[in-house]
Structures
1.
Amino acid sequence: MFSRFSIGIKLSIIVTCTVCICISILSLLIIFSAEGTLKKLSEKILDESSSRYVNLLAKVAINEINSLSYSASLINSKIQKEGDNIDIDDVSSILNELIMSTNASSYTYLYIKDKSILRKTDKFLLSNGELLMLSALNKANHTSRIIQADEEIVNFSSIQQAIQTNAFAASTPSFKTFQNHTEFVQEFAFPIKNERGQAIGAVGLFVDFGLIGAELLDPSAATFREDQRFMIDQQGIISINRNPKFLGTILDVLVPTDDSRAIVRAAKEGRGGLYPYITAAGLPSTISMKSLELMEGSGIYWNIITLVPNESVDEPVIFLKYVIVGCSIGAIVLIIAIVILYSKFSLVASLDNVSSTLLSFFKYLNHESTQAPKPLLLKSKDELGIMAQAINHNIEKTQKGLEQDSQAVEQLVSITKTIQSGDLSARITQTPHNPQLNELKEVLNNMLDSLQQKIGNDLNEITR
């Protein structure tokens, strides 16, 4: 079947198959190589996105904890120096300065079980005689003031834990209501100590995740399409999320999968990294988690998570595949078109010209035609050009030879007629190109010489 095709079609088929195979292999190699590179680049971007926000929250946490620690040390220093003669106004000033120095807190408090160490404390006493002061931030004019405290604050876990452990404590993130405003917060507290170093109270603040989460949740911060950023603590409790109904929910309870449980375990250990994840909507995704330990050795972590749907991560890869496939198809079509046009208008046309000239030449040789073919007009210097020159040279040479033979034959015919008239003096003077005709010429001339010597020049005289 293939052997029946013309050279142009054969050449087009061979080139087409070769180009398709080579470009397909090259495209696959580029796609596989680029896919791996883009995957790594996407993971790096995802990791850097989480790192950027963990650095942002680290500044907040350090500022809040350092400010709180400094305020606790000031109050403890006064207790050490002044004993039970501390002016409540000085403590109020420290508490107000604390709220002004924080970036993510709207309330700070001071709780002391033994009121005897302070003077002028009647208005801050609870029903059980303990001291509780609450400083509130006025966001409108950025000022602070001491307000009436709710006795419920005394039962906050951070206060009780700081007193029991005599060390920094942080509560579980939860909703708290102050001044008719409900906020999702986490309590930080440092112990207040007497002269003997025993914890007799605590100074603390409420970290408002609504304040620190604004930049984290800003849509303009998106790195990938439909990505999400949120935060969980070491127990997996969601502390920052764009959907308020998820706040306070444990991640592996919201999405009870092995992937979620693995992420919560890593969060508890402060072990960041990339993790597979399926959202509550069932969307396969990838999570980049970075962990921030609030105080070294505390085991209290803020885990910042950047979640990206896998289809968003794969978008650059898919786009690149389309580009490569499109360019490959375009290259194949262009190459095939060039080959077909070249073979049709150059190669095949030249071969057809050579073939037609050769057929005409063969007809001329076989005396099927009396007209010699016209010379080939090929300007190329390739094999076809060399072949055309050789054919033209041989056509010209053969044409001259045949004309030379024709002249010799015509003379032979003329001499034969002369001999028939009785004249033996005629000789063949034309030299034919054909060696056999040349030999015949010599034989006939020798024969005429012999006859002339033996008989004479004129047969008519002999017969008269």
2.
Amino acid sequence: MTSARSNESTTTALHRPAFIPGVLGAIILLAGLALVDSAWFTYVLYVVSILALIMVVMAVQGRRPLWVIPLVLVAVVWNPILPIEFPETVLRMLHIVGAAVFIAVAVFMRVPEAQPYVSEPSPEDD
């Protein structure tokens, strides 16, 4: 006699929780290349750092600590509160590197899907 549970697949489904913020962050960074010397660049700083920190939370919750390091670096480099001054060519190269970090995390950070909690009946329910 086999139970229904033994027939189920033992592999857990994986998903990419940081895919949308990662792609959006890469798009913002690449679009921000055109805004480096404008007043709109402050908005790029805010959006990029917020998206990086959102992805840090997703990495921590998904127990993927190695992805936290590059994302924290992105959040620090594009910090709007205490901005770090870089020469324009270095900043433009950092935009490309930051976009690559966002895409890499979006594609390669996979976490197991959360299983719904099913409580077992207590003995008092009988």
3.
Amino acid sequence: GWSVASEGTLTVALDITITPELKQEGDARDIVRAIQTLRKSSGFEITDRIKVTLPAEARESAEAFREYITTQVLAVSMDFAEGIEGVKIEKA
């Protein structure tokens, strides 16, 4: 779980273990990126408030970072649904 690099007398070691919390944070950032991409491709204005629906399997990570996600994408709600693929958004 460590990555080590040396140059001359300098050595740097990084713990590269991915904890469950770190994975959830990465998932949340991926969710934000997906929503922002969808907003842009759907022609939404940067200030439009939206409603977000995510696949049920994204619930754990999305709930852990709900405030971060909703703030970043200007969402007034974030729900989850079984059987959908990807992110769904609509204007609020």
4.
Amino acid sequence: MQERTRRILMTICGVLVCGFSVGMFNFSALGLDPFQVFTHGIFMILPAGAPGFGTVYAAINLLMPRYVVFYNGLDRREETFTQYLSESFAGDEGCIEVVVRTYNINYGHNGELLEKCPTLNGYAKFVSMVRENLEMMELPKAVEHAVTECIRQDILKDFLVAQRNEVVAMSIYEYNEEYAMRVTYEDGETAGYMRGKKEGKEEGKEEGKEEGRGQNLIHNIEAAMKNFGISLEKACAGLDVTVEEYQRVKAQNVRTD
């Protein structure tokens, strides 16, 4: 009987201590974790006479929020797919796992979702225009032409008119990796093939590939500096290369010429 009584008293004391601690954290507006801070923020903006904090906390828990990702790359064609944080780990195992539902927002995918969100739909159309333009023109012109066409078609018009320069600059930096990887490969492949064919040597093709990549890198950096009036350091940062790498590639091309 004494053991049972002791256990009951310890349980009651533990609950009281935990309740007191949570109450103090809540009163101090510090929160216990990101979700607790979020819940407290929602509770604080509710009008007078709203349900208590416990009721609000329980209601938000019932909503079961989910974390989703919007994907506009070119490697995946599925409408939706699941991604795991562990896929990014260098090793086979990790100490944490995050599972997200990913929605493909490339134009032509998940049409129902895009139709419900005009802004997202406009963004998907803008990205599609940029990629189509890249088949015929350099990156800065491709972005400029896409912005002009979107404004003409009343796609994100107000935003693009007000923030045109920022959109063009950010688009070039954001999409440059995708563009540069594709263009440098294609240009290098073509240059290598033509040089190898002309010289009749296989090594000519490999050298041509490397030369083509270098020339394209130099062209993109210098075009960004000229068109947007930015420094060499910022242009290299936007293209994800170092200044030293740019100088080395340029010196090699000068020697080749």
